[in-house]
Amino acid sequence: MATTGQGSPTGVAENLDDGSPTGKPYMCGECGYRTAKKSYLSQHMRTHTGEKPYKCDQCDYSAAEKSNLDTHVRKHTGEKPYMCGECGYRAAVKSHLSQHMRTHTGEKPYMCGECGYRAVCKSHLDQHMRIHTGEKPYMCGECGYRTAYKSALSIHMRTHTGEKPYKCDQCDYSAAHKSSLDQHLAIHTGGKPYMCGEL
């Protein structure tokens, strides 16, 4: 009868054919993680070593798992293999499609314990929580401006770079903010979006 292995110095354990009730004879000597397949243990060991053997041939990205590289490569190819049967929305990542499906079901499984706000995905709840904590993790390296939102920092950076990505298709006007372009377009359309409520 084999004894439970302590793992090699690299943390890779031997097959512990000891009739383990878990049916997971391969064990990590670093943290005790167990698995049924040796290849899974090899993959797990990269969490300890930091090894990322799967390299993107189009940029400097590398991954510990091939599936992560396959997902990353879709950024270059534009491939979106996951499609919503309701509306045709397409996603490069399966979890993004799952998240999208909640727009049809109305499901919001993530809830704020402070105020009851509900969110479709955890990242939206994490972002919301900054209202309560006051955390502003995004900081401008130019002037020290801080914000709770990455998108707000991107918009703020335009004050330093002078970037004006919103272009008028009728003249040479461009703007740093979409709302400014929308206001400008009224010049061409003759629209007057702001109306006095008093008659």
Automatic annotation (TrEMBL):
Principal location: nucleus
GO cellular component: chromatin; PcG protein complex; transcription regulator complex
PANTHER family: TRANSCRIPTIONAL REPRESSOR PROTEIN YY (PTHR14003), ZINC FINGER PROTEIN 143 (PTHR14003:SF23)
Keyword field contains rRNA-binding: no
Ranges of residues in domain C2H2-type: 26-53, 54-81, 82-109, 110-137, 138-165, 166-193
Domain of life the protein comes from: Eukaryota
Protein localization: Nucleus
SUPFAM superfamilies the record matches: beta-beta-alpha zinc fingers (SSF57667)
GO molecular function: DNA-binding transcription factor activity, RNA polymerase II-specific; RNA polymerase II cis-regulatory region sequence-specific DNA binding; zinc ion binding
Organism: Branchiostoma belcheri
Keyword annotations: Metal-binding, Nucleus, Repeat, Zinc, Zinc-finger
Protein name: Zinc finger protein 83-like
PROSITE patterns referenced in this protein's UniProt entry, alphabetically: ZINC_FINGER_C2H2_2
Cell cycle recorded as keyword: no
InterPro entries according to UniProt: Znf-C2H2_CTCF (IPR056438), Znf_C2H2_sf (IPR036236), Znf_C2H2_type (IPR013087)
